[in-house]
Amino acid sequence: MPTTHHTRMLILGSGPAGLSAAIYAARAGMKPIVVQGLQPGGQLTITTDVENYPGFAEVIQGPWLMEQMTAQAVHVGTTMIWDTIVDVDVSQRPFKLTGDGGDVYLAETLVIATGAQAKWLGVEGEQELGGKGVSACATCDGFFYRGKKVVVIGGGNTAVEEALYLTNHSDDVTLIHRRDSLRAEKILQDRLFANPKIKVLWNKKVARFVAGEGNAGLVGVDLIDTETGEASHEATDGGFVAIGHSPATELFRGKLPLDADGYLEVTPGTSLTAIPGIFAAGDVTDKIYRQAVTAAGMGCMAALDAERFLAEAEYHAMVDA
């Protein structure tokens, strides 16, 4: 039988942003509820080696880190619920959200931390070699390819920025683009073409990511020329798919302002959305940094912003009574 849950703070998403918001809110006595969503733990649960999260001298595993964050949130007073929200009513407070099993959530404040997913090519070997040479984040994984050959697939700002970043670790970076010109901003293109560590393969699409013998990891990519249909092969140690991200904001389309790429808009320097009492944190609103540590910081901001919002609302209610 469906249940109605009441909370001072409802958090959608259980990645670094959502769990950090929960930890701060719980410690402030707000008794937050986290609705974990389709991917509990967020993108870090499908990330193997994590070497850039502060506080750990040795490489740690993404799923383990999220288990620890979850345990900490629960320890300080967070309620974790495995559910997926299918409908939201943000026209008045308390905000009303409905889960796919019929449970209703009434929340005085709402933190949206539903994240974003990398777009993938959908070709053979891509999924199988994830974490074994194929990645969608050069900032996260580029360090593991020091002195090795890498390729970047894409033609927009993200791809060019990833290629430029990877030159910090590799002297052999190849950008693969399916067209004969890039979509990236001109200043980024100028930097790319001026960098002697980067070469560009034009009019090429990836047909397959190729594993070494015994599935030892990525050894190359099979390519198809988009004009002639000619097949070729490019040897590489690492392949970075950089064709953009899709923020999980469909629930809020038409209810909260989104930018041209579908990310939630917030007041700069804060987590405040256009509706008082609703806050956004992490990759759902951040298309620039997209790091676990920045998402965690934004989760902290959202909890503090929500706490201040409630304190002010309660004060005004008392004065106006």
TrEMBL record:
Q: Name one GO molecular function term.
A: thioredoxin-disulfide reductase (NADPH) activity
Q: Which residue numbers delimit the FAD/NAD(P)-binding domain?
A: 8-299
Q: Does the keyword ATP-binding apply?
A: no
What GO biological process, any one, is recorded here? removal of superoxide radicals
Q: Describe cofactor binding as the record notes it.
A: Binds 1 FAD per subunit.
Question: What's the catalysed reaction?
Answer: [thioredoxin]-dithiol + NADP(+) = [thioredoxin]-disulfide + NADPH + H(+)
Keywords assigned by UniProt, alphabetized: Disulfide bond, FAD, Flavoprotein, NADP, Oxidoreductase, Redox-active center
Which cofactors? Answer: FAD
On the tree of life, the source organism's domain of life is Bacteria
Query: PROSITE patterns given for it?
Result: PYRIDINE_REDOX_2
Q: Which family does it belong to?
A: Belongs to the class-II pyridine nucleotide-disulfide oxidoreductase family.
Protein name, per record:
Thioredoxin reductase
Q: Which organism is it from?
A: Sphingopyxis indica
Recite the lineage of the species.
Bacteria, Pseudomonadati, Pseudomonadota, Alphaproteobacteria, Sphingomonadales
